[in-house]
């Protein structure tokens, strides 16, 4: 594994962990600014670092209203591809979280598996996430896995 692949793996692991802990500081440190684009797993689009930070603040507040429980954010089947100053991580993942009584719009008591893609760009010597796309995983449709 190359140094770039190791760095991308480290960032991917950080993203998955941040999704489970609501680590907004991680977002601020590792996402690009106004040009960040997120196609959210629930079907909405978010633009810019400020957009995703606001989304996470809302989700953290909703989860805070829920009964105490364990948040699960995990990934597997990662494929990391690096070419020049761009890198892509594709993988399967699971997010389990109870967003509480006010969190119906966010999925309520969520326990879902997704397909996901992260895109990173090297900027000023380090890698920053410029795009995230997540969508529901429905294995077996028309022979797919």
Description of the molecule:
The chain has a six-stranded mixed sheet, covered by helices on one side. It is built from three helices and six strands. The chain has 145 residues and is of the alpha+beta class. The model has no long low-confidence stretch (mean pLDDT 87). A hairpin with a 2-residue loop joins strand 3 (72-83) and strand 4 (86-98).
Describe the strand arrangement of the main beta sheet, using strand numbers.
2-1-6-5-4-3
Give the uncertain stretches in residue-range form.
none
Instruction: Please tell me the overall pLDDT.
Output: 87
Form type: globular
What is the N-to-C order of secondary-structure elements (H for helix, E for strand)? HHEEHEEEE
Rg on CA atoms, Å: 15 Å
Largest sheet features? 6 strands, mixed
Q: State the distance separating the first and last CA atoms.
A: 26 Å
Question: From the helix content, strand content and strand pairing, which structural class follows?
Answer: alpha+beta
Helix content: 25-40%
- Strand content is 35-45%
Please count the helical segments.
3
List how many beta strands DSSP finds. 6
